[in-house]
């Protein structure tokens, strides 16, 4: 285990995006630590409005920030709303970074996404792959905004000595996920589809695309634990991957979801929908070497997410 670099004990910690799946998991993780968590709902603070962010930051002056606020979505949402995925995320990042620096916030973890890497990067992808090739067209807008966020951490480190870092989570799922079939990521969508097919006693449900792409899935509470680990123990310019160390085809994860949900029918393919990146399996060797590993298996994570969905979403 690498040494403690920054202690959260007694600090005022802002979780930006606390109502999202990642933000809520970060709050759960931080509640196990003696620190003062501050949050702001979208109604209290619109992060796309610069002066509002400046006023809020000056009033609240957090010691450290987990920057988990973003406009997020699955492949269809990204491909449908390029303006929002690029502009809203650029505004949010620019406003938070500049206002944080202006009031002297010296510690931040910025959360990116594995889609920042080139569409056909060598697999598994390590951090050196960044900006070495063309992006996946379906989410290039979000990827550019997230790459800009990585560059913002590096710019503030270099020019102002701010101890800001960025991390690159792989595909995430878990409690608090988005279960809207048009906006959501694949795993939450498959849970909804398998559940609805079971309830309707349907013969089948459809996955988008061929089912051949592979994805790496990290349970969101494992990510939150990794983010706290990095806040406390990582300080460098380079971004750092956060993955679970194995990936799976969409076809196989759909079958795993069906098994967990208890749907025994067949799984078909909707070939009118895009496959997206063929594979985006990350090399998480650097964070593993620091002492963090994912701990929730895919089947266990799906079961926990399905239980949450039944309690809150279905
Ligand atoms: O999770 P997902 O929407 O986004 O899709 P990406 C992953 C794969 O699942 C694609 C297939 O190959 C989809 O074709 N898929 C199958 C489905 N059935 C479904 C379904 O019902 N819904 C969805 N959504 N997919 C995202 C980026 O890429 O990865 C985001 O667009 C972000 O910006 C996220 O970076 C982590 O994994 O393809």
Describe the protein.
The radius of gyration is 19 Å and the shape is globular. It is α/β, with parallel strands linked by helices and 314 residues long. The chain contains ten helices and twelve strands. The protein has helices at residues 21-30, 50-60, 75-80, 82-102, 140-160, 186-199, 220-233, 250-261, 285-290, 298-312, and strands spanning 12-16, 36-38, 64-67, 107-111, 163-169, 171-173, 204-208, 214-215, 217-219, 240-242, 248-249, 266-270. The strands form four sheets. A six-stranded parallel beta sheet has the order 2-1-3-4-5-10, sandwiched between helices. A two-stranded parallel ribbon has the order 6-9. A two-stranded parallel sheet has the order 7-12. The structure holds guanosine-5'-diphosphate-beta-L-fucopyranose.
Strand order of the largest sheet: 2-1-3-4-5-10
Radius of gyration: 19 Å
User: What kind of sheet is the major sheet?
Assistant: 6 strands, parallel
| Helical amount | 40-55%
Order of helices and strands: EHEHEHHEHEEHEEEHEEHEHH
The end-to-end span amounts to: 41 Å
Number of strands: 12
Structural class, judged by helices and strands?
alpha/beta
Principal-axes geometry comes out as globular
* Bound ligands, named by name, code or SMILES: guanosine-5'-diphosphate-beta-L-fucopyranose
Low-confidence runs of at least 5 consecutive residues: none
- What is the residue-averaged pLDDT? 97
Tell me the fraction of residues in β-strands, as a range: 5-15%
Counting DSSP H or I runs of 4 or more residues, the number of helices is 10
């Amino acid at each position: 285990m690498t040494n403690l670099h920054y202690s959260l004990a007694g600090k005022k910690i802002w979780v930006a995006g606390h109502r999202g799946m990642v933000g809520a998991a970060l709050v759960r993780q931080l509640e196990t630590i003696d620190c003062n968590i501050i949050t702001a709902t979208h109604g209290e603070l619109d992060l796309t409005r610069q002066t509002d962010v400046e006023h809020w930051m000056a009033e609240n002056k957090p010691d450290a920030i987990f920057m988990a606020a973003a406009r997020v979505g699955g492949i269809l949402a990204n491909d449908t709303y390029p303006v929002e995925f690029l502009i809203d995320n650029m505004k949010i990042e620019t406003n938070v970074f500049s206002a944080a620096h202006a009031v002297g916030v010296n510690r931040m973890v910025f959360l990116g996404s594995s889609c920042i890497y080139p569409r056909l990067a060598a697999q598994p992808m390590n951090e050196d792959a960044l900006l070495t090739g063309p992006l996946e067209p379906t989410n290039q807008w979000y990827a550019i905004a997230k790459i800009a966020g990585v560059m913002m951490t590096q710019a503030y480190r270099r020019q102002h000595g701010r101890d800001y870092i960025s991390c690159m989570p792989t595909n995430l799922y878990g409690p608090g996920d988005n279960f809207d079939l048009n906006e959501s990521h694949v795993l939450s969508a498959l849970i909804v589809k398998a559940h609805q097919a079971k309830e309707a006693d349907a013969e089948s449900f459809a996955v988008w695309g061929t089912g051949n792409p592979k994805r790496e899935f990290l349970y969101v509470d494992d990510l939150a634990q990794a983010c706290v680990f990095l806040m406390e123990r990582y300080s460098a310019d380079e971004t750092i991957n956060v993955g679970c160390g194995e990936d799976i085809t969409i076809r196989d994860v759909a079958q795993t979801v069906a098994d967990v949900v208890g749907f025994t029918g067949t799984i078909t393919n909707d070939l009118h929908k895009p496959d997206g990146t063929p594979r985006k399996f990350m090399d998480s060797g650097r964070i593993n070497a620091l002492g963090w590993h994912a701990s929730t298996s895919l089947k266990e994570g799906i079961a926990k997410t399905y239980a949450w969905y039944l309690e809150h979403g279905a």
